[in-house]
Amino acid sequence: MVVPSLKLQDLIEEIRGARTQAQEREVIQKECAHIRASFRDGDPMLRHQQLAKLLYVHMLGYPAHFGQMECLKLIASSRFTDKRVGYLGAMLLLDERHDAHLLITNSIKNDLSQGIQPVQGLALCTLSTMGSAEMCRDLATEVEKLLLQPSPYVRKKAILTAVHMIRKVPELSNVFLPPCAKLLHERHHGILLGTVTLITELCERSPEALRHFRKVVPQLAQILQTLVTTGYSTEHSISGVNDPFLQVQILHLLRILGRNHEESSETMNDLLAQVATNTDTSRNAGNAVLFETVLTIMDIRSTAGLRVLAVNILGRFLHNSDRNIRYVALTSLLRLVQSDHSAVQRHRPTVVECLQETDASLSRRALELSLALVNGSNVRAMMQELQAFLESCPPDLRADCASGILLAAERFAPTKRWHIDTILHVLTTAGTHVRDDAVANLTQLIGGAQELHAYSVRRLYNALAEDISQQPLVQVAAWCIGEYGDLLLEGNFEEIEPLQVEEEEVLALLEKVLQSHMSLPATRGYALTALMKLSTRLRGDNNRIRQVVSIYGSCLDMELQQRAVEYDTLFRKYDHMRAAILEKMPLVERGGPQVDEEAKERKEAAQLSEVAPAPTESQASQLLDLLDLLDGASGNAQHPPLLDPSPGGALVHLLDLPCAPPPPAPIPDLKVFEREGVQLNLSFIRSPENPALLLIIITATNSSESDVTHFICQAAVPKSLQLQLQAPSGNTVPARGGLPITQLFRILNPNKAPLRLKLRLTYNHFGQSVQEIFEVNNLPVESWQ
Amino acid sequence: MIQAILVFNNHGKPRLVRFYQRFPEEIQQQIVRETFHLVLKRDDNICNFLEGGSLIGGSDYKLIYRHYATLYFVFCVDSSESELGILDLIQVFVETLDKCFENVCELDLIFHMDKVHYILQEVVMGGMVLETNMNEIVAQIEAQNRLEKSEGQGLG
Predict the structure, then answer these.
(1) CATH code, B1-151
(2) Which residues from chain B sit within 8 angstroms of residue A767, using beta carbons?
(3) Is the ipTM of this complex over 0.85?
(4) Does A243 touch chain B (CB under 8 A)?
(5) Of A49, A252, A752, A782, which is least surrounded by CB within 10 A?
(6) Where does the record place the AP complex mu/sigma subunit domain (chain B) (predicted)?
(7) CA A165 – CA A584 distance, rounded (Å)
(8) Domain boundaries, given as residue ranges, for chain B
(9) For the whole model, what pTM was predicted?
């Protein structure tokens, strides 16, 4: 029984008639079966109808790969009707990854050389959309010929196809560069637009091309001049502006040509001034041209007067009632803030006003710009504004705002106390959104400001007493109370109401943190250690502390249990050493190898008490299973990597590592991994004072066109070594050489056993998830001998 | 460069999907959904620019959109394109559709998806702006339609 298959319109009707997703699926599956049958042995005259239906369901998300070969057949047909749908199908269904795509090369070649104009147009369109490098190489000559054809319709398409080809096969620049000069003399706007695009692409790819095309600057200026002065033209006018698209494109090219080049810039000055002052700004088209002009003025070597004019235009636009204009103004100012800082500063009040925008896109721009405008003289005022913003800003901006404030505070803090206050405020307002190293930075800062110890501990205590949910705040407060608990109890500070704090209250607060379900394991660790330190700072007897410590000796959390057992042993067997071990910390050097203060204390305690470190299970063993361990049995990851960022590790400053103390003979870096532009390097550091400790910094870089996201690196070493991974600087590496990810490994190798290292990388790249497991070869012997 | 052009209605149903960068099918659908959700959150009187979602390109990309009655026209572009220029481009595209379909409405896009693609191909090609002169575009489309008619089979 043959059911006549539906026409496209009827199919669409039926699909729309379906009431549920399931019904729609049924209709489509039934129809696809028909389409398949028809492809096999249906009427070839109707093939284009079948493919059109298939393309429709493809748009809705249904599989359509079985139509790929049909595209080929339709393209090869002599009828325009067939070719039209066939080429569209090729553009939507075929791409470089399918072997089939090469099969259309021949058809395209024939159509380019012998087809009528509309057919040539289709072929060029397809080539510029899905043409692979191979196809482009094969068809370059055909496209080159078409550049000189009489028909402007075909020529303009050929020009843009050339742009695509150069992107795929950069060597083809040699083929397409010569015709450009001649093409600029054409009058057809489509051809001019394409040519300017082509020249722009050539200049961006090669400095020689850039030099070569500087000589057309006068000609470009002439074209632009004509456009600007020829008033209202029906053909190309958009809201009274003569072909704004071409104007913008020319201005963009002039920007590239005039950059860092006095002579070209000089040629353009007058013209730019003319465009800037004469363009009608009542409609969007005029504003588009004006903005491009401003960007060009600021980027080339323009006169000072012109630059001031440009920045003022932007300032004016910040007050424009049209939100789009304000958005573009903020974006443009952001581009200029580095090069023309003082000019942009003049508009600071308006920018700060824009923080109040309800439009999320605008407030985000305003935030970025505000942060960029903070400097030594306006820091107090700006911080006030920004902190007010932090309290009320939308959640997705919180993290950026918080880290922006902290960074600015670090760079421009007028006094240490102001700095501490600022960080404290950020932690209380947006504690959950700050980066991991905020805790380390603040403890470092407080530790270094001796005169402020009492002030800091009091403020932190108050903050903690109010709210124990914000983890970074709790961690810093716990650390501080542990270190300076004695100052807290003394109770005399200016400027804060004297309040007697009882010992019992302090202990109760720390216990509360310890027991709270909101506290992270790391936070609990801080609290426990703080309690322990207080045993030497407080005057009362230590029964309460001893009780807590012994209770946690049977805690299920391994980390906590280990600490508690060691502290308990400290009480019981080594009480005479307790005071010395729990003394106030000396200031940890920033930039030196970040020795984890907590770990140092615990290691000493551990050595004394001879308690074997409890083997960490769960997460560590998962890692071991995954990595298929080097020495069989149990390898050694001392702490679960990534899940427990080691307190006190400030990765940002590890890149200063060689400063203090410098290693005697630097061990050469090692490149261990490369795939599609993603590269992993290892750097090694060993110190003569501590030869058992090896620090490895892994750096992940990305030179490809696509961002790397969700990057995770795990490692394993032989059983006789101990490995500790610290939290990475992030898990995204932006494309084209964006900020790399760094991560620190600490390896203890007291027996100088040969070093072996196995790495496991997982990340997303080019829309696919990547997993790589490998052992690092060629590890330098200096890293372990 | 323009990375993608998406047209969908107020309920997120796609009416035109055109990518100028290669993405696997499932990702394409995800991008359409994600873009719809991003755009839907916007009120009507705020600016037409959105920082791009996580799937389509990275921080260099943004979404520029316009809302016409029941349809959203969304262009995903990188930083080399002029934002205001793209707004005008969307307008040109829509006005061209209007001329070709005579007072275009959503139903026209639904039932003539292929025609809409052909019109788009005369405005944007390979992710770059090809032609913005509406008369030229319409003339071309009409010539091509006549060619099809003369071959005997109408559009399926």
Answers:
(1) 3.30.450.60
(2) 23-24, 27, 55
(3) yes
(4) yes
(5) A752
(6) 1-147
(7) 67
(8) 1-151
(9) 0.70
